[in-house]
Amino acid sequence: MKNSISSVVIALVTLALIPSLAAETKPLKALLITGGCCHDYATQKDILKKGIEERANVIVDQMHSDDSNTTPDLPILGVPEYAKGYDVVIHDECAAGISDDKIVKGVLTPHDQGMPGVNLHCAMHSYRNGNFRKPVEKLATPTSQWFEYLGIQSSAHGKKTPIKITFTDKASPITNGLEDWTTGDEELYNNVKVFDTAHPLATGTQGKDTNVVVWTNDYKGTRVFSTTIGHTNATVADPKYLDLVTRGLLWACGKLDEKGVIAEGYGPISTKK
Q1: Is the pLDDT of residue 54 over 50?
Q2: By residue range, what is the domain housing residue 113?
Q3: Which burial class, exposed, middle or buried, applies to 139 when counting CB atoms under 10 A from its CB (0-12, 13-18, 19+)?
Q4: Which of 205, 211, 218, 235 could make an SS bond with 197 (beta carbons 3.0 to 4.6 A apart)?
Q5: Alpha carbons within 13 A on the beta-carbon side of 265
Q6: The domain spanning residue 152 has which CATH number?
């Protein structure tokens, strides 16, 4: 009888300690970069921070510019060490007019050094150089460098109408458990070139056009997750979108196992303020 009581007590103590294990795990530190043309980044940066932090043991620090030009004065420009101290960088900027080779190399420096990346929407149309509307043929050139990091080259988008999202790889750790959905009005980005290092996870269909809209990329051995979805505040605030982005971030940081289970201590922290 005493042994049974002892076993119950031990089990109860163990269960009580489980939440504290997550709380004591050092959170991932993510740097969210926002600013530039054509989007309500002042609102979306806060939606993303709140949504990600509610879903995972992640602290999201914001590096924002209110500059709404295609050449925004982002704090990271000309500062190759901008990601020091972070575990992952979330690129959500729209800097389509920034093409200076030295500046772009500086933005890529942390990723060249092994920093995981998450790229949202207009990040795909940033840092473009040369004839970016023509499929890249030669690698390691000013025209190819940002697209090589992303894994897909895009140059334009369609009208703002709903997009049907279809997960084409439901076995991926990122998409495991996620369901297809249709967005509100959104922009479907084209696929000029899909690199061999990219792995498509979902397509988007808008009218007669279908393109890859969610994918992962192996960038020189570094994990990169990207989605072209995320133009409107409504989409960014959609729980389905925030689930996807958060899981992509966790995957990029190596915190999802092959079945999509979040590593111990990196799931939602209920006590987080």
Answers
A1: yes
A2: 28-252
A3: exposed
A4: 218
A5: 10
A6: 3.40.50.880
Strand, coil or helix: 187: coil
Q: Is residue 261 part of a domain?
A: no
Q: How many domains are there within the chain?
A: 1
73 Cβ contact partners less than 8 Å away, ≥ 6 residues apart: 65, 67
Whole-angstrom Cα distance, residue 91 to residue 45? 11
| Neighbouring residues of 137: CB distance < 8 A, sequence distance ≥ 6 | none
pLDDT for the residue 23: 56
pLDDT (tens digit, 9 = 90+) per residue, 100-131? 999 999 999 999 999 999 999 999 999 998 89
Higher confidence at residue 19 or residue 173? 173
Amino acid at 111: H
Three-state DSSP state, 88: strand
Residue indicated by tokens 């109860």 = 12
231 SS3 class: coil
pTM of the model: 0.89
Does residue 237 or residue 18 have the better pLDDT? 237
- pLDDT at position 14 over 70: no
User: SS3 of 206, please?
Assistant: strand
> Shortest CA distance to 224 belongs to which of 165, 147, 164, 154?
147
Please report whether residue 139 resides in a domain. Answer: yes
Burial profile 148-157: b = 16 or more Cβ within 10 angstroms, e = fewer: bbbbbbbbeb
